[in-house]
């Protein structure tokens, strides 16, 4: 039995879950998320808890048990409290500005880079324009947008310039040794 899969998901106040055949709909104060469950899993509500059970004991179904539970748990916590990712921008002249659904990044290229935010994701930059915070209710989408923005100028291992996640440690490499 999957240790993660057998843990029930407690539903906080204000979160409503509807299960229609294979579609699970989770509504909360922040929004609504939908996901199709595989036919190998059964989901039902018991005493303000969501229970995920598998239909058989094959290896494939056992591997989906914990995954299904975690995806539904992320949906419940996303519509209740939301997710955020913080990106730090370091480098001379590097900055980020938010204009509506666009993030305009100055990253040392000959032109500013415009990044269009997908539906459901909001961004805000701090006053110094060196920290970008992404907010959303879908954990996977927030993480993917942060990874896409980071990929525009990954952190440099020699000068520590670029875009990195908050708290990410960049191990600096030694530069070239001078002539003797």
For the record, what CATH class of the largest domain applies? Alpha Beta
Largest sheet at a glance?
4 strands, antiparallel
CATH topology of the largest domain: Outer Surface Protein A, domain 3
How are helices and strands ordered from N to C? Answer: EEEEEEHEEEEEEHE
Total DSSP E strands: 13
Strand neighbour order, sheet with most strands: 11-12-7-13
The name of the CATH superfamily of the largest domain reads Ribosomal protein L6
| End-to-end CA span | 65 Å
CATH architecture descriptor text of the largest domain: Alpha-Beta Complex
Broad shape: elongated
Instruction: List the total number of helices.
Output: 2
Low-confidence spans: none
Helix content: 10-25%
Radius of gyration: 21 Å
Q: Regarding quaternary structure, how should these chains be classified?
A: single chain
Q: DSSP strand (E) fraction?
A: 35-45%
């Amino acid at each position: 039995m999957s240790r993660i899969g057998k843990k029930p998901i407690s539903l906080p106040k204000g979160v409503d879950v509807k299960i229609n055949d294979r579609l699970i709909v989770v509504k909360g104060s922040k929004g609504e998320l939908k996901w199709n469950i595989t036919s190998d899993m059964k989901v039902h509500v018991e005493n303000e808890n969501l229970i995920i059970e598998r239909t058989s004991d094959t290896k494939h179904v056992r591997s989906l048990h914990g995954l299904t539970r975690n995806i539904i748990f992320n949906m419940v916590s996303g519509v209740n409290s939301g997710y955020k990712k913080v990106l730090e921008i370091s480098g001379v002249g590097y900055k980020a500005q938010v204009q509506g659904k666009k993030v305009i990044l100055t990253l040392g290229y000959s032109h500013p880079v415009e990044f269009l935010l997908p539906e459901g994701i909001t961004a805000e930059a701090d006053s110094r324009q060196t920290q970008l915070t992404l907010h959303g209710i879908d954990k996977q989408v927030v993480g993917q947008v942060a990874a896409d923005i980071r990929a525009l100028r990954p952190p440099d291992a020699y000068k520590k310039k670029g875009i990195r996640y908050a708290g990410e440690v960049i191990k600096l490499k030694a530069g070239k040794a001078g002539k003797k």
